[in-house]
Structures are given as structure tokens and as C-alpha cells.
What we know:
The chain is α+β, with helices and mostly antiparallel strands.
Amino acid sequence: MFKPIPVAIGLRYLRAKRRNGFISFISLASILGIALGVAVLITTLSVMGGFQREIRDRLLDMAAHATVSGDGAPMHDWQRAVALAKADPRVAAAAPYVDTQALISGVQKQPAIVRGVLPSMEPSVSVIASKLVAGDFKSLQPGSFNVLLGKELADWLGVTVGDTVVVITSGIDSTGMGPASQLKRFTVSGIFEAGHQEFDKGLAIVDMTDLQRVLRMDDDVTGVRLKLHDMNLAWDVARDLALRLGGGYRVLDWMSENANIFRAIKMERTMMAILLSLIIAMGAFNLVSSQVMLVTDKQADIAIQRTLGMTPGQVMQVFMVQGSLIGVIGTVIGVVGGVLLTLNLEHILKLIERAFHVTLLPEDVYYITGLPTDLRADTVVIIAVVALAMAFLATLYPAWRASRTPPAEALRYE
């Protein structure tokens, strides 16, 4: 009894049985449409966010958060660069590396990146040691000329642990016969599986001093790799290190190195959000239809309210309250349903696979054993706000039309 009159009447219209059952059906369809759109949007964006996180984590397992390398020339004093990096409280670890393009020859031939690392320092910036499915990371010793190959690379080359491969580097050696490519035989001492094709088919790991000898780099390196406490600061930290070192250095962070991948994922996620928002929009259009029909059905009630002194603005508020509550109910159902569906999606996926005897996410194709999800509170809040805004906007025209109803015309045939 203490509620404002428009709110009280709007709530009564929401609960009251209507003479026209089709209006109730359209209102129910509006609620279900908004709820379905919200639930599907929450679930889809959570799954896409989970895949994005999975790709990012697998990239960063093998790649550094940031690198500082020589600009067109090797880095000479890498020990100083590592010391300066470790002195930065934002840096968790730093390690030197040598990278070169090479052609690796086994039973087949395959171009790949050959990366030289220091076995004592590399585990601090990557998890390569934990990704080995055969062999031992400790086999990388100076002078051993052992190599660790990605699983797909080893399969393509037709080699396994104990076999030898020939590494043909892109560098050249001046001889009496003219320039000639440098060849070196390495023994396969391990095979790793990173879960990302870029590394599994295109990366070979060797001891850094062995690669320096092959490339005749003395103690020079390609650059220094950094692992940070906060990967979002990668660019700033690497730039600061390059400035402290002085001279010309090239700075790369994990975002810029993989910009195309993350840009494509972001665009795909944005487009999916826009397309799925159309489901919510369809529910809002149904809400417009139901509200217009309700206004037509309540012509006599509107006229009586106007003759009792209710202003056009108050009449408008009645139907805005009634329509907005339909949007609130649909949004709440959608949020609860979307959150529950996202949290139980992997179990539902397994039930579907067992029921129909199919594999929806083959491990050999997607490199994952489950369905990753990333349910974020800010995403849920944004989706709920968008749904409520659409529902509110859908009530404006019907409510305005109700406020324009002439009492005399509405009561003429009553």
C-alpha cells in the first residue's frame, strides 16, 4: 500500500490474468527469449574466453613474456643484461638464448627454429622440461650436440630418441669454394609435446654453447628472455631494460609476438557477442508486441485511470514498470541458467559423448582433454546490463502510446 500508484498498478498488471490469452503467451515468449539470449551469450563468451586463456597459457609455457635482443646484430654482454633484468623487482627470471632458422634432415626434411638455451637457466623462463614425453632435459650438455624435438617435428622427420638428424643452419661459412651452408649432426635425446603446433612442429632445442659453436658466435647470444610476475607489464619492463642497456636493441612482448592470433580471437569473440545479442533483441521485440497488445487490451482501464486524475506520465510509468519487470525476470533466469550451464558444461559434454558415442573435442585436433571455460563476473554483469537496457527501451513506445490514449474515445463503446 506504500508503493507509488504507477508501480502498484504495473505489478498488478503483471500478476493479473488477462482476457486475451495470446498476450500472456507473447509475454512468456519475451521472458524466455531474453533468458535464452542471456544464457547462451554467457556460456558462449565463457567458452571462448576459456579457449583464449588455454591458447595464451600454452604459448607462454614455451615462449617468454618478453625478449630483448640485438637489433640486427648479436647481443654481446648478455651476463650484464641478465643481471640488470634480475635487479628489476617486476622480473621473476631471465635467461639468454640463441635462435636461428635451420633445415633439419632425418628421413624427411623440415624447416624449423633451432633454439639454443642454457639448461641451468631455461627452466626458470619456460616449462620445456615438464613437456618432455621421451628423453631427458638434462641430456643437453655442452659438447654433447644433443637436440630436443617437438613431437610433430620428430614424427615428420621419422626419428625418435637415439636417432641422429642433420641441422643445416642459415648461416654460411666462407671457404675456398665460396659460401657454403653449415651442417652439423645432432643426436635426438628427447621429444616434447607443448600442445601448440607452432612449437611441436617448428621448434628444436639444443644447448646454447653447442649452437654458438655451430654458428661461430663466440659468447654472443641472440638476446635475453624474461619471465615477469605480471605478464601485462611485459612491454614496459622489456623497454626499460633496453634503455638501461643502452645502444640499439629490439623489444618484443608476448602480445606483439602473437598479435595476429589474439587479434583474431578478439574479433571472433566480439562478432559472436554481437550475433548472439540478437537473440536478446528478439526477446525485446516480442516484449514490444506484448506491450502494444496489452495497451490495446487495457484501453478502458487507462481511460478510467485518466478520469480519476492520473497524469499521462503516470500512465506511461505503469506500462514501463510492467514491461521492465518482464525484462528483469528474463534476465535473472538467463543469468542463473547461463552460470549453471557454464559451470556444468564439461559434465554435460561428457554425457552427450557417452549417450551418442561421439567425441566432440578430439584431443589430437584440439590439443585439450576437456572444454575450457572462463566465467568472468564482469562479463556476466555487462550481459545483464545490456539485456535490461534492451528490455527497458522496448517498453518506451508502448508506454508512450498508452499515455496518449484519449479517455473519451476509449470509453465510447464501453
